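Entry for the shared binder. Reason: the reviewer on the internal report wants the predicted structure included alongside the sequence.
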Amino acid sequence: MVSSLAINRQFILAQQPPEWPDSLLPGIQAVVRTAGRKVVVLDDDPTGNQTVHDVWVLTEWTVDRLVEALRDPEPVVYILTNSRSLGSDDALELNRVIAGNLCAARRTTGRDFAVISRSDSTLRGHYPGETDILTVALGDRVDAVLLVPFFAEGGRLTIDDVHYVARGENLVPAAETEYARDGVFSYTHSNLREWVSEKPLGLLAPEDVASISLTDIRLGGPAAVEDKLLQIARREADADDAACGVRKVCVVNAVSYRDLEVVVDGLLRAEAAGKAFLCRTAASFVRVRGGIEPKPLLTTTDLGSSTTTGGLVVVGSHVERTTRQVSAAAGLSGIDELELSVPALLDPISRDAERLRTSERVNQSLAAGRDVLMVTSREVIRAATDDDNLRIARSVSATLAGIVAQLPKRPAWIVAKGGITSSDVATVGLVVRRARVLGQVLPGVPVWQAGEESRWPGLSYVVFPGNVGSDNDLAGVIQILRGRPAADPGDRRGAG
């Protein structure tokens, strides 16, 4: 069902000024190389590397590991915090510790860095807590926090400060979608100025939140963005705001990668003028800020496996889109769908038996060379508090990761669906400490190559966000990993 507030995508885009005519990415790349600052992305969910390629993802953040990362000449590194799975206090403490270790690594290496706090394009996460703690813990002056939730691959656009989610030919205001009804990170406003104001401890009225409009970006170009950022930086926060930790906030509108190029070019100019900004963004911004060229989607040739064991799909996400994707994938030939009962897992009496039953069936199917679709039951279990909802999610995810950890033999490949699930499967099930992002198998769906320290070095690990892709895309990814065309004649429902 489409919201009554939905608008036609082509209609509203046609009302906007034309895009800035020239590509700015070469100039951004030159500045990134010359400046030498490492872009460090603190990613609250494993899916945030869904626009980049040939970069490292770290799942640990000791000073030694961060020294190694800063010494690496590449422009971007991701640190997987998975903080979206934590309660607020734990998430903020985790950001504080990482920031402190980054500062220690900077003192050792002499290499400076710029931090991006990467979060969900549908506005779920620990904001403003994480950006507030980072501005303090990094010890650097921050003139403003930039909010950039635009995510091209997922159809998340920001126009006139309103954040939209694409639904077919329409754009639906984010607050009208299922994501706004998240059990932990719910919200009621699609206008980002109002969204900032409604957040706990946000302490800013909508009129106090600045904005860079599409008109600024498309008609004024980088110079106009730079001027807007310099104006924001010149505004003096009053003493009460400073004491409360309130930061100036600026919403960034964008509907295309060219818009981001203009914004990043202007941002780099403002930074060269001595100003400092902390960016809270979705995944698309990272690619442009790091000066990373787009790369064609990975193919069967890149990823097809020749092992005799089956592949494994682990599904923890319970959003409606994931459920439809699971239904389509279950229709593939040669795949066994195994449901893990969440109510049984939450019952101390039946928990162990349910875990053992599922684990045994998974091992049997993989050993027989069949692919496995291991899915949590689709009914959402709601608790009384946000913290209890997070505990349920972590408990279920830990069970899924534990089953992966006990696999007796390396599977052909693994796909994990959902943020908390993909983090736990990587860090607990596969013991990944460092992984290489190869690229994307579909827009917004990254593939990692497990590092040498992992349980199975070189394993192809697909991190499939819960809120990305069409109904047939999970089935299509399975076929690519199988080394077959996405529309295999043996499919009973088609892979799309």
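Summary line for the report: Residues 236-245, 488-496 have pLDDT under 50 and may be disordered.
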